[in-house]
Design brief:
By secondary structure, the chain is α+β, with helices and mostly antiparallel strands. The chain contains 12 helices and 22 strands. The two termini are about 25 Å apart. The model is unreliable at about 1-45 and about 60-195 (pLDDT under 50).
Length: about 550
Amino acid sequence: MPAADGGTSSSWPSAGLPVRLISAPFNVPSSSPRFALRSLPAALVLATMPALIAAAQAAGTGPVTSTSANTNASAANGAQPQILTISPWMPPAPAPVVAPAAPAAPVQPAAALPAPANAPAPAPAPTAAVRSSAPVASPRPAAAATAATAPAAVAALRPADTPSANSAAPASSAALAPLTPLVPLAPLDAAPDAPAAAVLAEPVLAARAWLSLDLNSGAILSEAQPDQQLAPASLTKLMTAYVVFDALAHQRLSPAQPVAVSNHAWRTGGSRMFLQAGHAVTVDELLQGLLVQSGNDAATALAEAVGGSESGFVALMNEQAQRLGMSRSRFMNPTGLPDAAHLTTVRDLSRLASRLIGDFPQYFHYFSQKSFTYGNITQPNRNRLLFSDASVDGMKTGYTDAAGYCQVSTALRDGRRVLTVVAGTGSVNARTTESARLLDWSYQAYETVRLFGPGQAPLRQTVWEGQADQAVLAPAKPVWVTVPRGRTADIRWAPQTPADLIAPLAQGQSVGTLQFTLDGRPLASVPLVVREAVAQAGWLGRMADQARRWYAARS
């Protein structure tokens, strides 16, 4: 067993018992049971290593190891030499039988993860002993991780290979999972084997297509015809705003910059902010006319200011659409006026709206503004939910005969943001009602929680050939997952990493993934990275670890 001073407390071994070389501090007390060899030449260390390894193999108990990296250096430089303590090398506890399909050693979790503060307490259940079934991948003993105790009223997360009262543990993956971003929720029709909290029935809206998206986790909560191409009407102005915001962010434009209104902009039909040809209007005023009043004249004036011409601006719109992954969208104008080739989907619109919120938070206030006055004419925002629901703070409405009544909405409730897209309703009232229904259902049916937040004990895994015995691992970014309301206690996690981590390891280096599941279905998969760098050991320490790994592979 390790002693407080870094040496060992073992006595001189019996004849024929393989030994372990461990660096010890200088000036070992005379009362210590250790057998100290002072001024042991580096050549003797090198000469004895093969014999020690052979003795360990012959005895069948374990190889020679060393945590000293500088013994030979101190002897060669004439400095005061280190003391080497020779102590018995006891065989490690036999590893549990591991199925051949398991290729990687799971990381040793530090403790059961406490659920977030907003997670509901689990229902009382009989107490059962829970143990990890994770196999031990190598004979190197791993230090016990610090346990994080969760309050009794807070539900605790379990590793994916730990049995649960609600569902069986999923089988281990046969290969490392790729480093993927957060993924949508699994289909709701895959019911769990055991009884679980009831999920509210998914709404059927009076609309051609819709989609609901949790922006904290990226989970798709509900969708219908998400990839059907349709006319976007004035929802087009979301892309117009994105291109203008990008120009503002790169200082190609400024909010106070005046823009001369052209005859072409003045003559643009449809909804208007009532610009006058030849007048100068600031970019800020045009943005309010675009997003509050849905002015087509404002859209055309901004397009000419940013793109030089309307056609030049449309080219920028389509470039941005491709960059944002809007693969089924094609824009023909900045207004949304009817054109047979002017098409998008509710999925593409959800991508665009979420990027507007994430990329340009400094301009989000335009979407929540309730009215705007220009030229002594005050027009209200056509998004009625801004006036009826205090949690709704955006985004845009649209209408043409071809598109029907459409709306993109977003709400923020208790720190959780949900985005909905509803297309092809039959009236202004239906557009408002169906958008509100989808928002309310999204909050009532699901909840979103953060896992591995600040203060959570980290994960640890054995590292070889390093100056530290273990690597401290953590998710590369905050982990948010969305689950049916009342199911946070059933979330499970499992790390997927290589069986052997070899130093050096840099801080932030990706070493695998951390996977989250519910009832065996994937919720999220995020990169697992090294939180604290691990430097490489000296040549003697590396040689010792290599010998141990070689022996373990043949045991």
